[in-house]
Amino acid sequence: MQALDHQFIDNRWVASHGTRRLAVMDPYHERQIAEVTAGDARDVEAAVEAARRALPGWHALGGERRGAYLNALADALTARREALMELSATNNGKALAEAGIDLDDAIACYRYYARQAGDLEARQGRRITHDIEGVDAHCYEDPAGVIGLITPWNFPLVTSAWKIAPALAAGCTVVFKPSEVTPLPEQALAEIALEIALPPGVLNLLHGDGDGIGIPLTHHRGIDKLSFTGSNAVGERVMQAAAEGSRGVSLELGGKSPILVLEDAEVEQAADWVMAGIYFNSGQICSATSRLIVHETLAEALYEALATRIDAIRLGDPLGENTDMGPMTSQRQRDRVRDYLAVAEREGLDAVRDARHRQLPSQGYFIAPTLYRDVPTDSRLWCEEIFGPVLCARSVASDDDAIALANDNEFGLAATVISGDPQRAQRVGRALRAGNIWYNSEQIVMPEASWGGFGRSGIGRELGPWGLSAYLEVKHLIGPA
Ligand code: NAD
């Protein structure tokens, strides 16, 4: 069995100081496929030192050359695309086609920030226009320093690309801790760093869990900034750690996003977009549109169209050609979702579809795609992030009611609006409190547009120029002309 017991520090594989070992699972076969070190503070110490040593040289290299490394990284991922899709599907449980979408997303992200690195170089030292005579002012953007990056398990290689690519483009060096649940695909990044001869210390990868690596990394004062994606509970601890030394922090946290189906929507088309918004990746998406808000005149027809589509979802082996939905990524996540289903049972929620309507595969951490209708607004299922294939629906009488209900939530990551009139859809979209709003569309993600949310969904934005700014410090030189 593969043992991930070495850390990638300074372009070398170094035996982890950690003595605890964690099982890495294949969630479809419910079997252990590898073991990974839980890590240790001494691993963090060595990685931070390496990243600090590498920082001046990596910055001095300039944006053009850093961009060339990012393109080489994208090329290397492309060359491994099929193998990594398979590894990701096996370790995460997502259907193979979805793993392909992930790989393409990650590759596009590295290529985008390769271009951004060049653009950054071109704008260094630009003159600031102002009204004071005899004074010259120039603007520079410097790397924020050594960055600690921590990611979850739902989109291996993607979430890490959204952090590593802009951080390296900006001239930062990084210590990256992937989720201990899906370390196998992420391990490829270290292999690629060696293959493309990335300068030592620029990208350090530490395997481990929260106790072994996460906590020592977030508290380490050699880390200038932290960028974290994951749960709110851990995000708040990361933010507390960042407060020591007044260090920067970016957080991408949870969501409970709405999908609004307005009165003039075409029901069959709307049903397709509703399905894609909640059942993709077995619902383990931070931007899952898990609250369906439908105009009352369409509700019955829409629930019927959704039931037909839910019945057609093929659950099974993530590597199987005929699989639409794989298992949950871990037993822990399966159990968390089951707990919510038990709450729904106690609350007497009205299930249009749930486990009673289908036979689950005999193995794998599966949850049946579920749809509850007329869910009370004070139900825990309506308010809290479930992170599974569970859709809660309510009907409303007007666009204003739909907007008010959509905005009545602590999170604000994403939303979708569906209408026969694109102007109306955009008008409603503008009234929503969320960072990513799609109209008459599935959830299209592009590296050029921002990612991140309002309220409890986090702090800061990833992707686009905003994603790069997160890793830059602005400075001005001002003096006589
Ligand atoms: P999690 O918060 O449990 O773990 C995330 C990462 O933090 C893991 O690498 C974990 O090892 C590490 N960690 C755990 N304890 C830590 C600590 N005390 N200090 C530092 N690091 C620690 O989240 P998860 O269960 O892996 O992922 C699911 C959550 O992630 C969901 O809530 C989901 O909404 C969120 N998420 C958000 C986005 C987004 O872009 N907003 C994307 C993906 C996932």
Structural class: alpha/beta
CATH topology of the largest domain: Aldehyde Dehydrogenase, Chain A, domain 1
Biggest sheet descriptor: 7 strands, mixed
Shape: globular
The fourth-level CATH homologous superfamily of the largest domain is Aldehyde Dehydrogenase, Chain A, domain 1
Question: Percent helix among the residues?
Answer: 40-55%
Which kinds of small molecule does this entry bind, naming each only once?
A: nicotinamide-adenine-dinucleotide
User: What would CATH call the architecture of the largest domain?
Assistant: 3-Layer(aba) Sandwich
| Strand-residue proportion | 15-25%
What number of structural domains do the residues give? 2
Strand order of the largest sheet: 15-16-17-14-13-19-20
Number of strands: 23
DSSP helical segment count: 15
At the first level of CATH, what is the class of the largest domain? Alpha Beta
Instruction: Quote the average pLDDT.
Output: 98
Distance from first to last alpha carbon: 67 Å
Low-pLDDT segments = none
Radius of gyration: 23 Å
Active site: 252
Keywords: Oxidoreductase
EC number: 1.2.1.3
Organism: Chromohalobacter israelensis (strain ATCC BAA-138 / DSM 3043 / CIP 106854 / NCIMB 13768 / 1H11)
